[in-house]
Amino acid sequence: MTRLSIATWNINSVRLRAGLIQRFVEERRPDIVCLQEIKCRNGEFPTHVFTQMGFPHLHIRGQKGWHGVAIASRFALEEISEPDFCPQQEARVAAVRVKGITLHNLYVPAGGDEPDTQINPKFAHKLAFLARMEAYYAAHPTNEPLVLVGDLNVAPGEHDVWGHKQLLNVVSHTPVETQALDKVMARGGFIDLARIAVPPSEKLFSWWSYRSPDWTKNDRGRRLDHIWANRELAKQFDADSFSIHKNARAWEKPSDHVPVMAHFDI
User: Is 0.85 surpassed by the pTM of this model?
Assistant: First the structure.
């Protein structure tokens, strides 16, 4: 039996924050790191830094300027067909097979500021992305071990945000978004591993806004970063191993997201 640890982190520029990734890797020793919002093209990715960290296997889906996702692994990665979730063909999906597990690393669009598809094309784009996810995973084989990770840009539960009532009309926690994400989970047969490890009644965050003058004082966070497994793989999840590394939000020049990690016994 092999113990496999997978971390996900919206790093908000991999070149700017490669040192933070290295610090996290040294402290937590993940086997696989899935990154979102790398903000670089494939050839600009700091490959040598990851090789030095012990990640010789890379799968990069870069893009100039914004977006971009990547998977860094200690184990060999097999590239597979990537789901077509993004109507605008942005670099938001990376898919591989590793140690017999299918791994999808996603960066769902944030959706802008107004939760109204008539006046906000970004919100319409987000909902279209989620709808494509629902259709794809509903048709995906359920007997194949599958883990979905990434910045899904939706805080689904009442205690996944600092203030449920205050944020019901704020993008990332509106009912139309949370219901759409619930449909993806249900149709795909996914388990939200965070809520296996931590009761749904407990506050749990992975993101704190840069706009907050003192994020540690008011702790107005949201849980936007997720690790899901289908039922086949969820049987091998070690609930005691699940962790959200809140301390990384206090590091120098941090991302506004922090790493989330889970272990599987495969």
Answer: yes
